[in-house]
Fold this sequence. Notes:
This protein has 528 residues and is an alpha+beta fold. The protein has four domains: 7-104, Rieske [2Fe-2S] iron-sulphur domain (Rieske Iron-sulfur Protein, 3-layer Sandwich); 120-227 and 358-424, FAD/NAD(P)-binding domain, CATH 3.50.50; 241-354, FAD/NAD(P)-binding domain, CATH 3.50.50.60; 452-527, FAD/NAD-linked reductase, C-terminal dimerisation domain (Enolase-like, domain 1). The strands form nine sheets. The chain has a six-stranded antiparallel sheet, with no helix packed on it. Strand 3 and strand 4 (38-43) form a beta hairpin. Helix 1 runs parallel beside helix 8. It is globular.
Amino acid sequence: MAFDEWEYAAELSELEENRPYAVKLGKKNILLVRIGNRVYANLAKCTHYGAPLKEGIVVGNEVVCPWHAARFKIEDGRVTAPPALQNLTRYEVKIEEGKVYVRKTRTETRKVTSTGKRETVVIIGAGGAGTACAQALRDEGYDGKIRIITAESSYPYDRPNLSKEFLTGEVKQEWMFLHPENYYSDNEIEIVFNEKVMEIDLKDKKVILASGGKMEYDKLVLATGAIPRTPDISGVYTQGFYLFRSMSDASAILSALEKSKRVVIIGDGFLGLEIASSLREKDVDVELVGRSEVPLRKVFGERIGGWIKHLHKESGTIYHSGRTVQEIRGVGKVKEVLLDDGTLISTSIVIAAVGVIPAVDYLEGTGITKNNGVIVNQFLETPIDDIYAAGDIAIVPDPITREKRRIEHWVEAQNQGIHVARVIVGKKQKYSEVPFFWTHQCDKSIKYFGYASRIDSIKYRGSVEDGEFIAGYFRRGRLRAVAGCGMAEELLYLGELIKNRIKIKEHVFEDTHISFREFYEDMVERRK
């Protein structure tokens, strides 16, 4: 499709209002959305992992991705919510005699233009929160200096994919980066690599670096994320023992797997289970050691946790439930693992995935840390002027329950980073995002919307055992969160119900004759 060349796409009568519709023009899949008598056209694949947006939903003036709930403006394809970072390609539309035609739109390039004295925003951390904050600052028109400090040597990358497609080998390292290198220079975002922050000089507004240098700031964003816990057992410093957090960790494990195809994983949380799933795809012999009898029970409940455990056993993982590792044995390098019941497992590779600790040691003495996190208000501001926190370290007031929450999710971190950027440029609104995360295990993708630290009941639709279900987590008769596998459209609409604080009763949730889509649309109409 060339510029200025109109191509027939569809009959206007074929397009149902507020429903995504995809057509193929040449080699491109184009998404059409009709709102009233207007039709909008954008690229039909999500810019995150390429999900088909025709399987998503349209809410208001946005289309929501069916895989990971990224959101895009229908009018111009602009990304409005992560995990997607790039906008959709937009197409012009004209309607003649009931026929819809589209053509390419020339891309407008945006340049950073400096005006007057330029203030400096320093962002500590190049993970989801820090990178999203830097991008959002530029997207919002911020023309000051932006400097990101990272302890790593690589450009910001897609951390959730480390335990998934990167570990399986489906995704190459060069595909993992969130942006090409020139993105940062083009947008005047400076990245300081291989540098650790030791402390903050609050009086003079300077960041003290481990190298001895100092960096001045006008605004400071704390987005240091977390570091993996090291199990308190002997042998963890033996060759062949690995923690799992960074790209270098994952790359080192992949190198080790070239010599051995037998691995012991300590920990049956999300990370340990995802690693196990990915390694089984590579035909690695995996033995998983978990403290609990049912994995992820605190998050999903007994029934879904049991189903997840069954999936892993069916995949060939040897599962040591309710067990702990007593010792990692070997002279110079790992040879075997001793469990608390006396079981000995021969292996040369041990991977620990037993949780993380918020990286806040450099904030000692500032008075803004509590319970291994950073206290922020509804604007993600710390008690110290011009300092903000986002991501794994931020303790945020939940907009619905009013509880203080600290959540270690990639999309939550990105959302918080974006929000901080908007506050910095003067768009000061309360943070009100509903947490979302996904996990991919044994060829099943489970998604979760909401926040439910305490629940009274779990209600279900579909079949957990068949891997097509939605679970609703209720507290005092109110839906706090949902989890699901398959049933993507209905799950997305439930996410919208939670986001918009629309109540749904337990018996309605369980009634399969009631469509969540229709329920949502009816409730939105009533609010008008």
